[in-house]
What does this fold into?
Amino acid sequence: MSHSVWFEIPALDLEQAKAFYEFILQEKLTVQEMGPLRMAWFPMHEGRMGSTGTLVQAQSYEPSHKGTLIYLGVEDLDAVLSRVEEKGGKVLNPKMSIGEHGFVGHFEDCEGNRVGLHSVK
It folds into this structure.
């Protein structure tokens, strides 16, 4: 088995990162502390494809523009990208067709992480 089941996006300022993702995705994240980790959980939607995860603030987590790239599935890629810069992020690659598999776009979040978006239309 080789599919994604969980992701964690590093954050130095969890409240700022939480506000950024809530604004661009128009969904509420839930903050929880688990030992030394402060986490803001993305909502889990029963029956939807894909994994869920959190923003994580901890000593060993450092935001990065390099390394693994995760893609968040969204309904309206243009709408999400249009909100990125308003909340302190930067659009890196605008919406682009990937043929029969839909569309992708990339942004840098307010913490400096590079993140991808995917939509089917």
